[in-house]
Write a structure and sequence with these properties.
Elements (H helix, E strand, L loop, with lengths): L5 E2 L6 E2 L3 E3 L4 H14 L3 E4 L14 E4 L6 E4 L8 E6 L4 H10 L2 E2 L11 H6 L16 E7 L5 E5 L4 H8 L7 E11 L2 E10 H8 L7 H4 L2 E6 L5 E8 L10 H25 L4 H11 L3 E6 H5 L7 E9 L3 H15 L7 E6 L14 E9 L5 H13 L3 E2 L9 H4 L6 H11 L8 H7 L2
Parallel strand pairs: 3-5, 4-5
Antiparallel strand pairs: 1-2, 6-7, 7-11, 8-11, 9-10, 9-11, 12-14, 12-15, 13-14, 13-17, 16-18, 16-19, 17-18
Helix pairs in contact: 4-13, 7-8, 10-11
Length: 442
Amino acid sequence: MCPVVWRNWARTASADPELVARPESDEEVAALVRWAAARGTRVRAVGAGHSFTDCAVTDGVLLDLDAMDGVEHVGPPAPDGSREVRVGAGIRLHRLCRELAARGLALENMGDIDRQSIAGAISTGTHGTGARLGGFATQVRAVRLVTAAGDVVEADATRHPEVFELARLGLGTAGVVTAVTLRVVPAFTLEAHEAPRPLAEVLEAIEPTDGSGLVDAHDHVEFYWFPYTDVALTKINDRAGTGAGPLHPLRRLLDDEILSNGALTLTTELCASVRAFTPTINRVAARALGERRYTAPSYEVFTSPRRVVFREMEYAIPRDRVVPALREVDAWLRRTGENVPFPVEVRFAAADDVWLSTAHGRDTAYVAVHQARRLPYARYFRAVEAIMTEHAGRPHWGKLHRRRAEDLAALYPRFDDACRVRDAVDPDRVFGNAYTERVLGR
């Protein structure tokens, strides 16, 4: 028996493909796709493996695009200072940020991890937080991809616009994306203000959706609520700050490595061994990270190191439903005593028009639940999923969930259009796998 040759970061999916290929050009990708299609073999591209689902798994050809990671083109500035930058699909976000910073540029918004490839991030709907900002897919202006026929196609809002819509957020079902053109902005700094606050106070502050609440008053707002506690760690980032200085390296080491990663490893291990300790440990953890305020380049504020392996599920719900949804999660946890030593993460995004975006057509709140690798997650995730489903929740395409195409079709006004384009560009499902069949249909 051949050994498993690929696993994702969370160890929730693995693959033993017939062939692992590492192309360095569009021509090589096209040749591999044509070869696979002629043999009736499926093709999936893989990035950093940071999806928790089996979306990259295949027993056919697995394309590793790490070598296609260059900055291909930087366009002229627009009147607002933004530019269009074309990069190879395999470039990791942390390297992209450095390349942009060297040119005086930055991504407008980011999630909290920078290990993903750009193609993987956009294809699964990765997002950050900000009531006036969308996810990664909204920053995409064009893609270059290899189709199931082995053709290299440029697609944007005017050239092959429907292929563009599926390619910029479609789980790789439109073809193998080999390059992405992004709208980027002049480099900027953020002032970060992080502080533990009473959960009731945070929920009251975020509840208004008329522009008067906490979420609309700042550029980027998120918070982490620790189960079995009444405390939330708030993280607020703004471009216009009050002049806070940079974070001292020793404070960064203490907070981001020793407490956020090292201590979390120890506490999750302890909670896995002695369930009764979890509420007490969560109360201590909720207060261990004290208030801090600092200024840094945007990409250093947006992202944090994640060295503790966990499982994650995230749902996008209408923003005005997040408070009742969280209260229901809290009630279920307190009723069942489920062993959950990880915080619940809440973020926000503006409505957009990307066909398969979880924020399509509605201002959105994201509720993410996590579980330590050694602890069971199925019952917890199923309970939260049931709550989010009652609140019209859409699951993150790259995180664990149990929804199927028949469940999802009613949640996305353009779902049928996405499936129609998929049928047109890949009728033989060269780019399909078990996951795409579950969530988009056969």
